Amino acid sequence: MKSSADVQLDSCNVRLVDPERVASVYARMPGEGDIVDTADVFSLLGDPRRLKLLVALLDGELCVCDLAAITGLSESATSHALRLLRAHRVVAVRRDGRNAFYRLDDAHVRMLLDLAVAHTEHTDAIHPERNPERSPEPNPERSPERNPERSSYPERNDLSNARGRAERSADPGRSAS
After folding, report:
1. 147-173 pLDDT, tens per residue?
2. In whole angstroms, how far apart are CA 55 and each of 58, 107, 113, 152?
3. Which residue among 11, 46, 117, 126 is least crowded, i.e. fewest CB within 10 A of its CB?
4. CB 82 within 8 A of CB 76
5. Dihedral over alpha carbons 93, 94, 100, 101 (to 10 degrees)
6. What is the pLDDT, as a whole number, of residue 137?
7. CA–CA separation, 113 vs 41, rounded Å?
8. Is residue 133 over pLDDT 70?
9. Average pLDDT, whole number, for the chain?
10. What is the side-by-side order of every strand in the sheet holding 99-104?
11. Residue 41 class from Cβ within 10 Å (0-12 exposed, 13-18 middle, 19+ buried)?
């Protein structure tokens, strides 16, 4: 970690409101390589097709052909997306003869997905880039309290269980279902 004495900020015409806090945050900021790697993971999750594959894997290990059927992608497109996710250690593969079975790589990936899905289930995002005329009023149909059938995974609506599910999935003795 960097000490506050090592922090050198470019001079500009804007004054710092809280220089000690700026120095503290700067000192604990991850290295540039870690920031780039993290941005790459978020970029991977930003593609709806890859995200669909990952959400399908929340229930456990699946083979490529089953993932293709679930997501509506071709087997070739599914394999390509999974190779990319595997290269970034988001998924892991197990081979059984000619079949490749994929699973989420670790508990961190599961927790990240659980939290992202839970976040979108309790919010009504406004996407001005998609529809600039859209009003910012919340949609009651997105609320799990109003629409319990909204999620086929009702336990995901409880953020307090995200860590427990993530830890259970990381248990090496756990059998994939």
Report:
1. 444 444 444 444 444 445 445 544 444
2. 5, 14, 7, 11
3. 11
4. no
5. -80
6. 55
7. 12
8. no
9. 78
10. 62-63, 99-104, 91-96
11. middle
How many whole angstroms separate alpha carbon 116 and alpha carbon 118?
5
Q: What is the pLDDT of residue 157?
A: 40
- The pLDDT of 116-136, averaged and rounded, is 74
Q: What is the 3-state secondary structure (H, E, C) of the chain?
A: CCCHHHCCCCCCCCCCCCHHHHHHHHHHCCCHHHHHHHHHHHHHHCCHHHHHHHHHHHHCCEEHHHHHHHHCCCHHHHHHHHHHHHHCCCEEEEEECCEEEEEECCHHHHHHHHHHHHHHHHCCCCCCCCCCCCCCCCCHHHCCCCCHHHCCCHHHHCHHHHHHHHHHHHCCCCCCC
Is pLDDT of 56 > 50?
A: yes
Q: State the average pLDDT over residues 39-52.
A: 93
Chain centre distance of CA 124: 18
Residues β-bridged to residue 94? 101
Total-model pTM: 0.63
Token pair 């000690």 in the structure block, residue: 20
Q: Where does the pLDDT of residue 121 fall: very low under 50, low under 70, confident under 90, or very high at 90 and above?
A: confident
